[in-house]
Amino acid sequence: MSALKSQHAFLTGGGSGIGLGCARAFLRDGAKVTLMGRDEAKLKRAIGELSVLGEVRYFAGDVGDEKAVAAAVTQANDWAPLTIAVANAGTGTLGTVVQTASDEWRRVMQTNLDGTFYTFKHAGKAIAAAGGGAMCAISSIAGLRTHRFMGTYCVSKAGIDMLVRNTADEMGVVKVRVNSVCPGLVDTEIAQGLFTTHDVHKDYLDCMPLGRTGVTDDIAHAVRFLCGPESAWITGVNLAVDGGHHLRRGPNLDSFAAAMYGDKPFGDI
């Protein structure tokens, strides 16, 4: 297929997991791809895998650093005008709100929310200058439903969804569409602890009407759709791709809290 021929996609966190899956989807449909991530060795491995599918380059840098994002976007845009951007880079943490250190809160926000903001800010300008296109953020079921002991992560993802809606409202006039995908539990490196803890994994499945966890292609196909010509009249959408998990409740993560805090998840209260 060549539905994305002449398109150029910029993806953060593209060295593995969902980002790598998105890169495959874009390349298979004819787009050029620029990956950005912190781990240069991981990016080089990704390039080795992806280069057989099409034209792909990388920029090593931290999405939580605005100067790095600006430099990455400039380098990518100099190669070919950007028309697509995917803010995928993310991190997480566990802990009750009252036990979370401010440095840990800031670390998660810097990557998840600040990184999305920097991507939209700089890539959005480039895409608008190219005549328009699409941006997509990777949010989470945790931005839609409470996850006890994951409050920092939840707030960062809920913030991304509001940023998406507001940016979509602003940038429609310059023909830039902005959406997010909200994955449920997907089999990626960052989620392995949720898969290997039996009671937590089972509870996630109990919350999913479709009764299975996700794979990276489930998310990549949704991102590809939202960034492609098929969704030309869709903007400002936070699309749940989660087996229906958003229809029910957040997962029971009590076993994680017990492992971390014993019988004192709130300290000495």
In brief:
This protein is an alpha/beta fold and 269 residues long. The protein has 9 helices and 7 strands; from the N terminus they run βαβαβαβαβαβαααβα. 45% of the residues lie in helices and 14% in strands.
What does this entry look like structurally?
This protein is of the alpha/beta class. It has a single domain (8-185, 216-243), classed as NAD(P)-binding Rossmann-like Domain (Rossmann fold, 3-Layer(aba) Sandwich), CATH 3.40.50.720. It contains 9 helices and 7 strands. Strands 3-2-1-4-5-6-7 form a 7-stranded parallel sheet, with helices on both faces. Helix 4 links the parallel strand 4 and strand 5 (133-138).
How many structural domains?
Answer: 1
**How many helical stretches?**
9
Low-confidence stretches: none
Number of strand elements = 7
The strand line-up of the biggest sheet is 3-2-1-4-5-6-7
- Quick one: biggest sheet? 7 strands, parallel
How far apart are the first and last residues' alpha carbons, in Å? 60 Å
Structural class: alpha/beta
Describe the SSE topology.
Layout: E1 8-12, H1 17-28, E2 32-37, H2 40-50, E3 56-60, H3 66-79, E4 84-87, H4 102-129, E5 133-138, H5 151-171, E6 176-183, H6 192-196, H7 198-206, H8 216-227, E7 238-241, H9 254-261
Parallel strand pairs: 1-2, 1-4, 2-3, 4-5, 5-6, 6-7
Helix pairs in contact: 1-8, 3-4, 4-5
